[in-house]
Structure formats: structure tokens, C-alpha cells
Design goal:
116 residues; alpha/beta; Rossmann fold; five-stranded parallel beta sheet; 4 helices
């Protein structure tokens, strides 16, 4: 079982991400559109993997991830962004630099970080 927190303020992209990683092992999902919602969702159900946009309607993905990891410790994260300059403090190995994203890139990134 692999629970994924998807932090994305565009619903269609969030659902596409869900579909992509469901085919390679993700079993349950939580969704958040803002930094605050992301932290609340993580507290409600600790994620095994976080997939996050960088720029959100309110707050940022990296800000949410930092707060979540401060409370819960290190968690695998995949940032997906069309604005890589806004993700300067992100681990470069966990960033997919394109939107819309290719299914293959998302699946490979997920398989690389998801618990086995």
C-alpha cells in the first residue's frame, strides 16, 4: 500500500497525476490545493510519497513539504513544475521540469522514490 499526497492547484493535473501513479503502485491519495491544505492532509494521513507543484494558489509546494517534513521527518518528494526557478531549494533529483508532464517521466520518478 502506498499513500500519495498530491499538492496541485489545478484539478485536472492532479487527477492526471493520480492516474499515472496508480498504474505503478500508488493505492490511496489525498489532494491539496494550498500549502495549508497540504499540511492538514499530511497530518490526517501520513503520505508515503508527496507529489507537488511549486507555485500554488496560496503558499508554495516547497513550503508545504518543508513544514510536513519538519513534523514527520524525511519523505520522498517529486516536484513537478513549469517554473524551475521557483524551486531553487528543491532536491534536483526530485524535480520534473515540465508541464504538462510525460506519463513516462512521472511513472519513472515515482517508481524511483516509492517504498517497495
Amino acid at each position: 500500500m502506498c499513500h500519495v499526497l498530491i499538492i496541485e492547484d489545478e484539478a485536472f493535473i492532479a487527477l492526471d497525476l493520480q492516474d499515472m501513479v496508480a498504474t505503478v503502485g500508488a493505492t490511496t491519495f489525498a489532494f491539496a490545493e494550498t500549502e495549508r491544505e497540504a499540511v492538514e492532509e499530511a497530518r490526517a494521513h501520513r503520505p508515503d510519497v508527496i507529489m507537488s507543484d511549486v507555485m500554488l494558489r496560496e503558499g508554495t509546494g516547497p513550503g508545504a513539504v518543508e513544514l510536513i517534513q519538519h513534523e514527520m521527518g524525511p519523505l520522498p518528494v517529486i516536484f513537478i513544475t513549469a517554473t524551475p526557478d521557483a524551486c531553487l531549494n528543491c532536491d534536483p533529483f526530485s524535480v520534473i521540469l515540465a508541464k504538462p508532464v510525460a506519463d513516462t517521466a512521472v511513472r519513472q520518478a515515482f517508481q524511483a522514490v516509492a517504498p517497495h
